[in-house]
Structure formats: C-alpha cells, structure tokens
C-alpha cells in the first residue's frame, strides 16, 4: 500500500488500465477567481494574466494522458472551479477542439460551472454552440444580507437576471447551487429563493449547508467570536424543512445535497458516488481508477512548471487497501438514494460490522429498500453519526 507522495518515475505505467467496459468522466479544474468568497477553501488564483499559459498547459496535460484517453469512451465532462465561466470563449474553444480530437469523445453530458456576473446572452449562446449541455449556476442566495456574509461578488438582482437568462437559453439541463444554514438567513428567505427558482423552471438544485473551513475569512471571524455558527439542531431542522418543501415542488433528492426533477440528475457526479473512473486535469484536480487515487498539486505555478518539463504534475498518490475500498463504498453509497447493495453487505462486511448494521436497522437509521440498504431521507442530517456507528 502506498499513500502520500507519488512514486517515481511519474508515468502512465503507474495508472492501472480501466476495467473492461468502463468509461471516463473528465473533470477540468479552472483555477481562477476574482476574489475569495468568505467560506471557500477551494484552490484558485486571481492571476487572470496566467489564463493563456494555463490553457496551453492543460492541452499538454491531455497529450500526456492521450493513450489512456484514447482507450475508453469519454462519457461526461465537468468544468469546475474556480470560475470556469470567467475563461474567455476562444480559450474554451481550444480546450473543446482538443477534447474533440479524441475519437473516444462522445459525452452525453458536459457541465460548466458559471457565476452570475459572467452570464451574458453572448456567452450563453457561445457555450451552447461549443456543446455544453448543462450549466451549474453559483447563486448561493438572493438575499443581499446572506450574499454579504458569504462575501460573494454578485448582487441579488444580477443573480436573478442570470437565472432568467439561463432558463431561456435552451440547455438540456441546468442547476443552481445554493447555501443554507447561514446565520441570519430565515426560512422565509430560503422559501422565497426556492419559489423564484421554481417559477423559472430550474430542474436541478444543490443545497449545501454552510461549514466553516480552515483558512477562510469566516474561520478567522468565528475564532475571534465575530461569527456565530448555526447549531446542529437548527441545521438539521432547516435541512429537513428544505427537503419537505423541495419534495412538494416536484424534486426528488438523490444525494445528500442534491435534488432533481426526473431525468436531470448530474451524471458526472454519479461517477464519484458510484466509484467509476474519472480523470482530473488542471491544478488540484483529483483522479481515480480502481484502486488508485492521485491528485495534481494545488499551485498553478507548480502545475505550469511540471507540465513545462513534460512531467505529470502529481503531488499525491494512494493505492487503496481492501479496507479503504470498503469504507468508501459505505461513505459514497449511503449519501445517495441508491445506498449500498444488501448482497454486497452480506458478502463483504465483517461479522462485527453486520452486528452494527443490524443495530442501525433496528433504530430505523438504516432501512432495506428492495435489494439496497439505504439511509431514509429523514435521517440524512445524521449521516455522519450513522457512518461512525457502523
Ligand atoms: S466559492 Fe467559487 S467563486 Fe468563490 S472563491 Fe470559491 S471557487 Fe471561487
């Protein structure tokens, strides 16, 4: 078992071949943001002067992976960030041309994360013309007070106009990212936000509970006593109220933070939860092929230098043990509506774990649903403690 720094030499022979019949999901990390939102700990840089160099390096990174990318169908692509919508259209075009040069490129879903301040009619039609099928809009809230607390760049009116424009733009699917459990955010505010989005016909919503991550503005404020976090009980109540309201509006939950109308679940994200192979390109991007995980370093400059030397920019490498694989199946599976297969539990779990699972079945924290073992929706707010208990 190996975990930590990648083993030398860094080359494709380190990556196991894809299991037969498997496909690729490609994640492209676009590491540029205008400024840091107060809650965010994702890797980004505000140095937009490096965008050109970044695109060059990204194309070179794809060349390094060519034999692997040519070996299996590229089924989904996800441009995440950072702020992919900040990337000028001609640069995105170059990335698409390179992707399209792979004979295996026939994705049924290409998602781009977009921030409201970047959404214009011109960009919307250019994104569609490129082949983007799904937009994920980072709204977070329409309340001026909440946006100020979160340190977001956009204003509420701008976000509303962006959503209205996306609704009319004709993408096969689209989604909005929202945040709950922000101190000072009332249920009425959340409800009004959902009502607006439903009126606009949004077919997919992600609601993330605010967490206070190290190395963020909110973390510093919290530790100085200037920011009151929402307590666990209020968090769970808000989460449940959200769920009930979304269900009433025709959405089905399919993962702890995601709700969709029929036919609009995010296929790329399912790859992570079902532990299918994915390749991450760009600084800080993670990759997985059974049973190896690896990650690029979280530094644009380091990334440009490594690619410039013709090397993979890997900073982390891990070969998973059978025990780690089992834990991941539990952790990824139970956060989704599919849960884990009951037959797999019977086959795989140790006698001690089977006893612990039986105890959770007795309390109703786990239930049998056909051939699956799932966490019932009303217990999802307790997912972490359920995972600890089994
Ligand atoms: S939340 Fe999004 S826009 Fe804000 S800093 Fe993080 S990645 Fe950038």
How would you sum up this structure in a few lines?
The chain folds into 2 domains: 3-273, pyruvate-formate lyase- activating enzyme (Alpha-Beta Horseshoe); 322-390, no CATH class.
Structure notes:
There is one protein chain. By secondary structure, the protein is an alpha/beta fold. It folds into two domains: 3-273, pyruvate-formate lyase- activating enzyme, CATH 3.80.30.20; 322-390, no CATH class. Helix content is 39%, strand content 21%. Strands 8-9-7-6-5-4-3-2-10 form a nine-stranded mixed sheet, with helices on both faces. Helix 7 (187-199) links the parallel strand 6 and strand 7 (204-209). Helix 1 packs across helix 11 and helix 3 packs parallel to helix 4. The chain is globular and about 55 Å long. The mean pLDDT is 95. It binds iron/sulfur cluster (SF4). Iron/sulfur cluster (SF4) binds at residues 33, 36-37, 40, 42, 44, 81-83, 115, 138. The site of iron/sulfur cluster has 11 residues, from loops.
